[in-house]
Structures are given as C-alpha cells and as structure tokens.
Amino acid sequence: MKTAQIVIGLGFGDEGKGITTDFLARQNPGAVVIRFSGGQQAAHTVMIDDKKHIHSSFASGALRGLPSYFTEHCTIYPIFLLNEREELKTKSGNIELHIHPLAKVTTPFDIWQNRTNAKNLEHGTCGKGIGATMKRHESPYKLFAIDLIAPRTMLVEKLKGIAYYYGFMDDHQIEEELRTFLQAIDLIDWKIDDYTYLKSFDHLIFEGSQGILLDMDHGIFPNVTYAHTTSKNAYKICRQLNIEAIEMFYITRSYATRHGNGWMSNENAMVLKNNEEETCTFNEYQKELRVGELDYKLLNYALKLDAAYSCPTKKNLVVTCLDQIDDEFKMDKLEVKFDNIYGSYSPYSKDFKKLF
Fold first, then answer.
1. At which positions is IMP bound (predicted)?
2. Number of domains in the chain
3. What phi and psi values does residue 333 have, to the nearest 5 degrees?
C-alpha cells in the first residue's frame, strides 16, 4: 500500500518544516520528498553531524540522500537551482531533482520587479521573484518548466516578451540580463516529469512551505504569499495517485515568529537563546525576524482551518525550539486531538522526542 506524510507549518513560516522533513526522510530512506507550494524563497535548514544545508531549490531530504520533486504549484529559478546543486555536491547530497512540466519559472525580470516595486516592498517580499512570477502568470506572459527544454529560439522569444511586459525595451540590456540565466539553463540536466514519476515510490513525503497563516486564501491580505500553504495541494496530488493512507505532521515553534510585514498577535521583544544557527534572522527586503509568545487560539484556528482540506489516517504535532521557553508547552490548550506529539529542543537538531 502506498503511503504519504504531509508536513505543514501552522504559523507564518520558520516553524521547523525542514528538520521535520529530514526526520521523516531518516525513517523512510526509499521515499521521495515533494515540494507542493512555494519555491526558491524557502530556507529549510537541516544539520546532519557536521554538515548543514539550507534547502531552497531542493527538498529537505536532499542532504539525507533522497530525491526531490517540485510540483506545478512551485516556482523555480535556474540560477539559484544551479548554485544550490553545486553546493549540495560538496556535501554529498542527492542532486536528483524532477520537476513537473507546469512548474512556474522565475526570470531575472521577476526578481527585478520584486526588488524595485514600491507596492511589493510595502506589502513584504523576500526579494526572490516569487510574487512577481505568480502575478505574471495571471497574464499571457507565462513561462513553465517545460519551456526550458523547448528550442532555444522559442525560449528566448518568450523571455523577451516577459522583459517587455515589465518595461524593458533595450534589447542589449535584455541580452545582458539573460546571459547568466541562459548559461544556468544549459548547465542543468533537466528532468521534466509529470506525476507518473511519483508512482514508482511506495512512500511520499510532502514538504510544505511558509505557514497556514500566510495562505493566499486565508491569510490577512495584502501580507500573504502567492501560494496555498495548507494541505490543499498535497491532498489533491494524493487523490491523483490514489493514496489513501495519509499522515499529517503539523509544525509549530514553542513561540511565534513572523519574517516580514503584517499583523502578528502577541509580538514582543523576547530574547532568543541558543540560536546561533538561526537561518532567517535578517533579509534586506523582509527585514528582521519578529518573535512573540505563542498564541494558542491562533494555533487552534490554523489546525481547524486545515481540517477543511484534509482527512488523514493519522495526525501528529511537532513542537520545535522547546529550549526557548521556561514553562512546558501547554498541551491542555490544544482543541485538536493528535495521535502523537513530538518535541525538539532546537530548530535544526535531530533530537526529536515523542512527548505524548
């Protein structure tokens, strides 16, 4: 029987989806890890002994040796992908990456738009072109993964159209912007595969992006992401693959975080400890990582919201960074029942313990 595990963040991101995915990859060495939302903006950090890797263009099983798959709900940026592939090679990670033909491709012009548009900067951006790519795909100027293996003349014409869409009119400037981009495309052995590829695996691990509170349908507009960060997309894929044995892993830190603009409850100036390996501390576009006490009402809201999309055979909760709070995690405030509750005392360590 084919089985699946789905990893979902319950907050505004940075909950510990990377280490949870690595935890599941360690238990299932023959699995494939599937990204079903987001893209190159991810910063999912995994540490194995003395090796550390921040997964963005590869799923968080890569350092553990598992292959990655990006669905049509994801974005990819060839330059970032190439750079991460080379870094993974030095760490003996798995650089096998399969991409759905309809995954959306970010271009240098999308990144320029994200980093210079006043409205994007006001609403919040990671500066990696995600929002601009998704917004552009609402227009006729689309670019998919399958286009990366199309005849070069056709690909270049599509890229020129995207440049014109953003107001680039100088052909020489366009060529300069595309030079490194096209070189990266040439250096990657593209594996463009539909879901038939996934049928060869008995176990699938679905790695979410960001958190439920940033979902494009359920977050507080305009400070949301252009993605469904609930289990909606993962369940849709499981149905297509006829997978019925589905286990959920919901992730939260022991305190609240938000990286970027927008509303956040219980925000305060709590001082973090033992966080020398923290990845998302500062980004020139998102600015500082904001923190505060965990809002249990908001946690219960996110859990009940995702239940509208999911019907798992098993439901688990993972609480990371337990070393940051003096009191115990308040299990009695949870209004949702779990089969298991796991805890970790760091955002990047392997010290998962079954609490209940």
1. 14-17, 210, 225, 287
2. 2
3. -90, -5
- 164 and 223 co-located in one domain: no
Q: Tokens 């603009």 belong to which residue? A: 261
CA distance 292 to 262: 14
Is 332 known to be catalytic?
A: no
| 213 and 142 belong to one structural domain | no
Question: pLDDT value at position 282?
Answer: 57
Cβ(75)–Cβ(145) under 8 Å? no
Q: Which domain holds residue 181?
A: 106-187
C-alpha 60/C-alpha 249 separation (Å) is 15
Residue type, 157: E
Q: What is the pTM of this model?
A: 0.94
44 carries an active-site annotation? yes
Binding residues: 13-19, 210, 225, 287, 321-323
Same structural domain, 226 and 90: yes
- Which of 187, 217, 235 lies at the terminal end of a domain, its last residue? 187
134-173 residue pLDDT tens:
999 999 999 999 999 999 999 999 999 999 999 999 999 9
Q: Out of 14, 110, 215, 295, which one is annotated catalytic?
A: 14
The pLDDT of residue 269: 80
CA distance 38 to 18: 14
Name the residue among 232, 259, 262, 261 with its Cα closest to residue 248.
232
Q: What is the pLDDT of residue 198?
A: 97
Helices (H), 193-295: 232-240
Q: Which residues, given as ranges, of the chain have pLDDT below 50?
A: none
Catalytic choice (22, 44, 203, 259): 44
173's CB contacts (< 8 A; 6+ apart) are: none
Q: Which residues on adjacent β-strands are paired with residue 51? A: 48
CATH number at residue 8: 3.40.440.10
151 and 220 together in one domain: no
